[in-house]
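User: What would this chain look like folded?
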Amino acid sequence: MAAVYSDLEGQAVLVTGGGSGIGESIVRRFAGQKCKVAFIDVAKEHSEALVRDLTSQGSAVRFEHVDLRDIDALRRAIKRVKADLGPISILINNAANDERHQTPEVTPEYWDDRIAVNIRHQFFAAQAVLPDMKAAGRGVIINFGSISWMIGHGGMAGYTTSKAAVLGLTRSLARDYGPYNIRVNAIAPGWIMTQRQIDNWLTPQALRELEERQCLKRKIMPDEIARFTVFLASEEASACTNQQYVVDGGWV
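Assistant: Here's the prediction, encoded as structure tokens.
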């Protein structure tokens, strides 16, 4: 049975990339804490199905259909969320896309797109919610990184560069906003068995590598990341800020 954190009840939570994968598990876990949850995603059909499912269970969930590369659209969506749910006290910057790409084929336009998909929106989402957090004298921002850059994963330099940058963004914001009791941390997941990962990359050879390199000789599931995210957002982690937490089954 998952832990219940009473301090989270009623708080307004925003999750980017919350329609599937790790993000969906995070949305479900915060809804289970009786939070007011909004999430942003570009995938409309699956996201709307998630809202219907959670709403039928009595949860307060709102979906905003936005391409996070469009910062003006992101800002408008956050304004709508705040008008509906109130000031956002917890921001989970989860959205990303680990699309593979070979270095000789990367154009400046494609490089900029990878940065926009994987890191730029994290800063601007934080920028949009920080004034309300500052006014309230509290808040939590959790930025999602990856172990990919730590283990030297090749074939997606735009992604790994972006994910390495998450740590720099996290530490800068934590330093600037710590005096206002705003905690900013990063989570670096390992190879998490979302449906996308299973469909695209879980080959017998990849599974053998996982078993060789992870300390835990099993697959790590999205809900395991979600449970840690909820803990880190709660007052049980009240002294935790300016850090990156690796959740990878012991790969790194």
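The helical segments are 21-32, 44-56, 71-85, 108-136, 157-177, 195-201, 204-213, 222-233. If you want, I can go into more detail on any region.
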